[in-house]
């Protein structure tokens, strides 16, 4: 009989216990290895195997996390992944549930490259843009003497423009000593340039390689040395997809050594063809010019006449001009004479004597009208004045006085209208219809019987 603790487990129970043990004991870890068998089904998840030289590990990167991974994740890439060690219970597969992916080695170099590039760009190290001489008289090439780059450069220069003098400055282009050697060579060439002005351009180049092989050209001090170079510098490092800090600091960049040589010098065959075209155009222009001048000479020869004929023609023209001038003068005189007669007629009509006679006539008529109108106007005004006098007499206060009334005035000439305006003993004057009376007040009353007395 089996004891309870020895009872067999189901497969699912065993897988569940194994999963729990893995997740609890190992948990979340970073693992580095090489990608293999990268699969991207339509679900959006990414499945791959992480391996080294002795083992491999199945990994799953679910869609919710895969969208945050910027690396392309190709077979053969070396990466670092962070995830939870687990077990897929239905199949009993041991796997790593990946949360994040980073490129190993290369990714760190690229991050360092971007940080250094940003800092140097902010300092203005990448601001060089001087034009290189075209073509250069003396080109100084800094590269490995045994590499393919110098052979490509020399082959292109020999085929396109053999007139350029080329001096190879042998320097290592890979390894720890490469950057100091390149910086030292740049300093030496710039010092010698003052003694030999024919040296007018520098080419720094090497062939392709891995990011680690080309890392020497991302050296900060080398980029600064290129920036401070008095001679213009072209950089052609690696293949077309490779970009280094030396490329940014240089005055010009070429994707490959061969392309650098093509940019530095023209193609002599194109120049020869261009010169042949210019020579042909010059010959055509000369022939056309000679033909035009010959035609012009023939035309001038035809137009050229004997001086006597020219004089006769000029004399005839002068006679014609003389006749035209005489006719013009006669016509002008006739016009002025007619204008003078017209002005005389206008002046006669506007003579002062005539105007005085007309004025005397108007004055005589006006005097007669005045003598006729004056008696009538005087009678009319006399009648009007009599009417006004009668109206004035009707409303005159003197007419009222003539009917027995009097106007009392005080010593200041003010009219006395009320008894209260006087006081006993006050002298007043009474104006009658005829004459005046000087009176003195003996008493005043506001109302009372007639017969109040005043002294005279």
Q: In short, what is this structure?
A:
The chain is of the alpha/beta class and 456 residues long.
The domain tally reads: 4
CATH class of the largest domain: Alpha Beta
So what's the oligomer here? single chain
* Number of E-state strands: 14
Tell me about the largest β-sheet: 5 strands, mixed, barrel
Radius of gyration: 66 Å
What does this entry look like structurally?
The radius of gyration is 66 Å and the shape is flat. α4 packs parallel to α9. The chain is α/β, with parallel strands linked by helices and 456 residues long. It is built from 13 helices and 14 strands. The chain has four domains: 97 residues, Nucleic acid-binding proteins (OB fold (Dihydrolipoamide Acetyltransferase, E2P), Beta Barrel); 139 residues, Rossmann fold (3-Layer(aba) Sandwich), CATH 3.40.50.261; 61 residues; 55 residues, no CATH class. A five-stranded mixed beta barrel has the order 1-2-3-5-4. A five-stranded parallel beta sheet has the order 7-6-8-9-10, sandwiched between helices. The chain has a four-stranded antiparallel beta sheet with strand order 11-12-13-14, with no helix packed on it. Helix content is 48%, strand content 20%. The C terminus is likely disordered. It is an enzyme of class 3 (hydrolase). InterPro entries: Exonuc_VII_L, Exonuc_VII_lsu_C, OB-fold_nuc-bd_dom. Keywords: Coiled coil, Cytoplasm, Exonuclease, Hydrolase, Nuclease. It catalyses: Exonucleolytic cleavage in either 5'- to 3'- or 3'- to 5'-direction to yield nucleoside 5'-phosphates.
